[in-house]
Specification:
Blueprint (H helix, E strand, L loop, with lengths): L13 H30 L20 H12 L4 H13 L2
Helix pairs in contact: 2-3
Length: about 90
């Protein structure tokens, strides 16, 4: 029995070992990437171009003027007819 044969055998050299190790790393990286992609898809965590979560469709954002108008109506400074009239005017001129 030769010294080289007692542990790994003659058929495996450093080149094959490096190749097999590299392939195993690539395989596990692909498995992990597939799992992460599947979880993100199933969780519905879509992001917009800013990296923020997409918001569900809702009413258009209020302008500062609409917020002030709503606050004045809530405090009782203006009547409902005036509130509705001014709000429709603001929304027409967006």
């Amino acid at each position: 029995m030769r010294y080289d044969d007692h542990m790994w055998g003659n058929s495996w050299g450093w080149g094959e070992w490096i190749l097999m190790t590299s392939l195993m790393v690539v395989f596990w990286a692909a498995v992990i990437a597939a799992i992460v992609s599947a979880v993100r898809y199933l969780a519905g965590s879509r992001r917009n171009s800013d990296g923020q979560p997409d918001q569900p469709p809702s009413s258009p954002p209020q302008s500062r003027a609409e917020e002030v108008l709503g606050e004045r109506f809530a405090r009782g400074e203006i009547e409902e007819d005036e509130y509705r009239s001014r709000m429709s005017t603001l929304r027409e001129h967006r």
